[in-house]
Specification:
Rossmann fold, mainly alpha
C-alpha cells in the first residue's frame, strides 16, 4: 500500500497486508489459513470502530458491515456472535454451509436464547446459488419474532437484466441525460424499495 497520513490507512500500513486475487489458478484456501473471526471482531470493536469514530463523521449507533463471499460468511458470523457491533448488515453470497453449516447452528443457538435480533439485514446471492433454501432454513428460526422479513430471489438472467436497468438509469434514450425516474418507475425496483427501504 502507498503510505498515507490518514490515520485509518496508517494503521493498515503498520500491519501485514496481503492481497489475494484468484484468477482461476490454485484455490487460495490451499495457501492461506482460515479462521480468526473472533480476533478480527475484537480488532473491529477495540481499534477500528474507535479510530473511525474519532476521525470521521461516523454515527456509532448506526454502523454497517458489508461482506461478499467469504466476507459475507464473516458478516453472517458477526450477526449472530457480536450483533452489538453493527446495526446494518449487507451480506452477499455468504457460505452458509461453511464448516458443516456452522452458521446455521449459530443462528439456531441465537434464536433459542434471544427474543429477537435487532438488526437490518440485506441478504443477496446469485440465481445459481442455494441461498433460497438456506435463507428459508435460517428464517424458520427467526421469522415468528421478526419485525419484517423480505426476500427477493432473482432469476438466473438477473445480471443480463441488470445491465439494461443500469443503462436506463444512466441516460435518456434520446438526450443521453441521466434519468433516475427510469429506474424509480420500474416495478422490480419499486418492489425492492418497498421490501428493503
Amino acid at each position: 500500500m502507498t503510505p498515507s497520513e490518514d490515520p485509518l490507512f496508517a494503521a493498515v500500513n503498520d500491519s501485514e497486508v496481503q492481497a489475494v486475487i484468484d484468477a482461476g489458478g490454485q484455490p487460495v484456501f490451499d495457501h492461506y489459513r482460515m479462521g480468526g473471526a473472533d480476533a478480527f471482531l475484537d480488532f473491529i470493536a477495540t481499534e477500528l470502530q474507535p479510530l473511525v469514530e474519532a476521525n470521521y463523521p461516523a454515527d456509532p449507533d448506526d454502523a454497517t458491515i458489508v461482506g461478499a463471499s467469504l466476507g459475507g460468511t464473516f458478516a453472517t458470523y458477526a450477526l449472530f456472535e457480536r450483533p452489538e457491533l453493527f446495526e446494518r448488515y449487507v451480506i452477499v453470497s455468504p457460505g452458509l454451509n461453511w464448516d458443516d453449516a456452522m452458521l446455521m447452528d449459530l443462528e439456531a443457538e441465537y434464536a433459542a436464547n434471544h427474543e429477537d435480533l435487532s438488526a437490518r439485514v440485506f441478504l443477496a446471492a446469485g440465481g445459481l446459488e442455494e441461498l433460497e433454501r438456506q435463507v428459508e432454513s435460517m428464517l424458520a428460526g427467526t421469522h415468528p419474532r421478526a419485525v419484517s422479513i423480505g426476500a427477493i430471489v432473482e432469476e438466473p438472467d438477473y445480471h443480463a437484466r441488470l445491465l439494461r436497468y443500469v443503462r436506463a438509469y444512466r441516460a435518456h434514450p434520446d438526450t443521453e441525460a441521466p434519468l433516475r425516474e427510469n429506474i424509480a418507475a420500474d416495478p422490480h425496483w419499486q418492489q425492492l424499495e418497498r421490501t428493503f427501504g
